[in-house]
Amino acid sequence: MKRSLLDILCCPVCKGDLALGVIKEDEAGIIEGTLTCARCSVAYPISDGIPDLLPRTDPHPASNQ
Ligand SMILES: [Zn+2]
Prior knowledge:
Blueprint: E1 18-26, E2 29-37, E3 43-47, E4 50-51
């Protein structure tokens, strides 16, 4: 993902700002890294250049049996 994308991304849970942590980057942008929400303290991974912003909070844990 491009660094400029950070300006339009926000936390899917609280809509807060995300802090970028870069693990691997090339001229096209960030390849591996993390996006961390300062408010929720949830870290979303970036892998293969794709930010994975699926909410990590699960109100219904899969243990209904
Ligand atoms: Zn958040």
